[in-house]
Every structure is written in C-alpha cells, then in structure tokens.
Amino acid sequence: MALAVAAVSLSLIGLESVPGYAGFGIGSAVMVLVGNPLSGASTAPEMLPGWPGGLGRLLPPGAGAHLLRSTAFFDGRGAAPAAMVLAAWLALGAALCLAAALRAGGRGVGPATGPPAG
Q1: pLDDT digits (tens, 9 = 90+) for 52-79
Q2: Do 5 and 18 form a contact (C-beta atoms < 8 A)?
Q3: Would you give the DSSP letter of residue 108?
Q4: How far apart are CA 93 and CA 108, in angstroms?
Q5: How open is the CA angle 30-35-37, to the nearest 5 degrees?
Q6: Residues 6+ apart with CB under 8 A from 101
Q7: Which value, to the nearest 10 degrees, does the dihedral of the CA atoms of residues 91, 29, 23, 80 take?
Q8: Where do the H-state alpha helices sit in 1-118?
C-alpha cells in the first residue's frame, strides 16, 4: 500500500511542480475521478466492461489494488505487472520534480545570498 500511496503522491507533486496548480488539479481529478472507479478495487477489473478494466490497472489506484490482491490472496503471483506500473508512476513523478528543479535553476531555494537590495 505504501508503494501505491507513494506513486500517487509523487506523481501529483511532479504534476504540480511543472505546470503549477492546474497540473495538480488535473492529476487529482484523474486519480480520484477516473482511477478509483476504474481500479476494480471493490470487485475485480475483469468485471468492468471492455477497456476500462485495462485502463484502471494502468493507474496507481488500480495497480495498487491488483498488487494488494495478488499479495494477500495469491502469495504474490501476478504481482510483477502491478509493481512495474507503480514503479513507472514513481519514476514519472521523480522525473517531473527533477525537470521542475532544473528549470528553476536553483532559484528560490534556500536563503538569499548577496547584498540586500536597497
């Protein structure tokens, strides 16, 4: 569960750090309004019609539910795809945070150094 929470959190922080609050809002809406219903956590993603089950397993809530279900009931069998999806979301969030830090060029980090203005 910690991996799923970290994947959601870091990806949202990354989305907020690059485009700003709009990225955080869009990311939150995708995770909550799309990811949770399509995760199949309360039933199974196979019960969803057509493509939504597959899409749900590509988002962190669905991958986290699949990883939890695989670990709890099937002794970890079939958990690798879900773990890879969560790792990919973690990597995406870290890359977005790194891109925002590089774009900022260190501006606004730490106390101001140099003579006071004025």
Answers
A1: 878 888 999 999 999 999 999 898 898 9
A2: no
A3: T
A4: 21
A5: 125
A6: 17
A7: 10
A8: 2-17, 21-29, 36-38, 52-58, 60-74, 80-104
- Per the structure block, which two tokens stand in for 17? 């750090």
pTM: 0.80
> Look-up: residue for tokens 């995760």?
39
Cα distance between residue 24 and residue 18, in whole Å: 9
For 90, the token pair is 């973690």
Cα 46 from Cα 44, distance rounded (Å): 5
Write out the two tokens for 107.
């501006």
Query: Rounded distance, CA 118 to CA 90, Å?
Result: 44
Tokens representing 65 are 């539910």
Residue 19 one-letter amino acid: P
For 78, the token pair is: 């079939």
